[in-house]
Each structure stands twice: as C-alpha cells, then as structure tokens.
Amino acid sequence: MNDIFATLESEARSYSRTWPATFDRALGSWLYDEDGKPYLDFFAGAGALNYGHNNPILKRKLLEYIERDGVHHGLDQATVAKREFLETVDEKLLKPRGLDYKIQFPGPTGTNSVESALKLARKITGRESIISFTNAFHGMTLGSLSVTGNSMKRGGAGIPLVHATPMPYDNYFDGQVDDFLYFERLLEDSGSGLNEPAAVIVETLQGEGGINNSRAEWLRNLADLCRRHDLLLIVDDVQMGCGRTGPFFSFEEAGIVPDIVCLSKSIGAYGSPLAITLIKSEHDVWEPGEHNGTFRGNNPAFVTGAEALRQYWSDDTLEKSTLAKGHRVGQVLETITSKYDGTMAKGRGLARGLGFEAPELAGKVSKAAFDRGMILETSGPESEVVKIMPPLTLTDDELEQGLQILTDSVEAAMA
Known about the structure:
Blueprint lengths: L2 H6 L6 H4 L4 E5 L2 E4 L4 E4 L2 H4 L8 H12 L12 H18 L3 E4 L5 H16 L3 E5 L8 H5 L4 H5 L8 E4 L13 H8 L8 E6 L2 E2 L5 E2 L2 H13 L3 E5 L23 E4 L12 E5 L18 H14 L4 H23 L3 E6 L2 E6 L3 H12 L2 E2 L1 E3 L5 E4 L7 H19 L1
Parallel strand pairs: 3-15, 5-6, 5-7, 7-10, 10-11
Antiparallel strand pairs: 1-2, 2-3, 4-12, 8-9, 11-12, 13-14, 14-17, 16-17
Helix pairs in contact: 4-11, 5-11, 12-14, 13-14
C-alpha cells in the first residue's frame, strides 16, 4: 500500500490495515484495487451498502439530480428531494406497517440518530438514566459510547461515561437464567440503587458485538417490561435495518413497535451519509432548533434513498430473497461448525457470523479470505466472530463463490 497513508493519515485508521489494498473502483458486490484485482465484498460498508456499490438504478437518479443542479446542501430547509423522500418513506414503510412515526433528520450518521434518541427520551421523561445491554454498540460519540459495551471503545472517551446501566442481553447467561428476572427486580426494588431509567436502547441483532441475535420472545418481553414500567423503548436499527435481517425493520419479526427507531447506513441507499430518527407522534416534543446540525439533511441521499424504497420495497421480493440467501449461508455455516470443534454459527437474514472459541482464528480466516479475493470483517469483544454481511442484491452465483472462499479460508486457518 502507498506509504502516504502511513505517513499522513492518523493511526486511528483500521480497515485499511485489515485489507492492505488501495481500492479504486466498485460495482455491485465487487471492489477493485488500483491494479484491477477484484475482491468480492462480504462487508458492504458495515451495512451501508445493502444495495451494492454504485447501484446503476440509484446512480442514474443521482446523476440526473446533480446534472439539473438540484439542491445539494440545505440544512433542514424544505426541498423537493426531502419532500419526495418523506412521501416515499410514508408510502412504502410507515403506512403499510401501520406505523405512526414523525421523521427527524438528526445529522449525517448513525451516532447522530442515537444521540438524538437519548436526548429526546430524557426530555420526554425528565429522567437521566438509560438502560443498555452487554456487548452493545451504538456509536463513537459520548452519549452513544455511554450505552456501548466494548471496553476499548469506551476507554477512548477519556472521561467517565455516566447515566447508563448495562443489563444482560438475550442468552448472555447461555439460557441458564431468566433474562429479565434481575432487571425487573432492580426496577421494583427501592433499595436497588438503580436510578429510574428514561429508556431502554437495544439492537435486535448485535452486529459489532459479535452477531448476537435476540429471540422474538425476548424482544416482546422487553417491550412489555418497558410498557409496565413506563420506559421508552429505543431500537437501534442503524446496521440491522433497511432489510439486513429480511424485513425492512429488524424488529418486525417480533411484532413490537418501538417508541423511537434509529436508522442510518443504508437508509441513504448509495453509501452517502444520512440518518433519520423515527419518533412516535406523541413523543415529538422538540422545540424548533433544539436539536440540529449543519449536515442534517443530505439531499442527494434523499434522492437515492427514496429511489431505493420505490425499487426494492414496493413488494416483498427483496425480503424473500434476503431470507433465502441467509438460509443458504446458514446451511454452509452449519456444515463448517459440524466439521470443526470450537466454532459456532450465528445470526439471521444476511447478518451472519462464524464464532471461534480461539479468537485469533477469526482474524486468520479474514486474512485468508482477503488473500483469496474476498472482504470479510471480524466482530465481537475479542474479534472472535467472522462477520458475513454481503450486499442484499448479490447474485446467487456471487453468494456461492463467497461461501466457497469462506469454506476454503476456514480450512486454511484451521490447518
């Protein structure tokens, strides 16, 4: 790799260390380095590229918008692009699901959505404490870090992270303990020392935490507990929303309706920065300008985001395809785990993982895959899980090619 990155770029860079190539082009499920070598992308921008790189349908809409001098930057001014995005979200996502949400544009990325959700929950309830979960990841700004579990990321804050209390995520005790027994006892016991919470924030499937999937029953019980104790329920769907688990929202399978939903990554559809916060109408108590930001309305992302909803969410074709491809990934993972001790298949939809009892093996698999022309990330508190998150739009042939590389890479790492 060109020395300019090591010379001038901050040591904070990470992915460029994992995949030591200089990429130049990308299309669909493929990245190409500057020498033209192809890499099959089973990372998809950490979930920001659910519709693939430079999706031609979305690209055409974007180019048309730019060529006609459509508004590029407009703060939170009313624009044609924003109007069409709002109308399409309402038509394709909210009304078909009977959801009554207001839409806030909090800033350009996922942590902005989380920060706005936490801030709003505190304003609504007048309480400070937030309940989060073990191995959660919600972002890298201070509020989001306070409800994140990873000790290395939390340590980067440099100051105490307060007003948040972690609780055990689903199966944290390997199914040996009633998950909410401890949580509810603390809420009901005036001597527990637990500050009365404003809200609970949860990922229905933890991506960065290690592809930890929660059961639909667990989510329903959590929603019920929140209702009974007057807590707001925030679902962070930044990485697992936009169809990653099959349905557009990852919580649909459980049949729950969160008070607040955080969305980013693929909501803009093309890899452009965009985040939205969905707020139940009765909870939209913001004063004008009370939460704002210079880049809280990315008009080009409105254009591509709206077109993606029209193209891919007017029916259930993509949802069914994602579930079928996810099932195929699951079959291959089960074959691998049956062959090698100390491995575990994880996840649902096209958010899948292969866990290793020996954490270093996940990194070896990732490296072996890169050497074979595929991009694979690791996740989990010890980077012990190989994370499988290709674009939802990949072809069956690309899926099979990737699964073969994965199988070969595991074999090489375990040799």
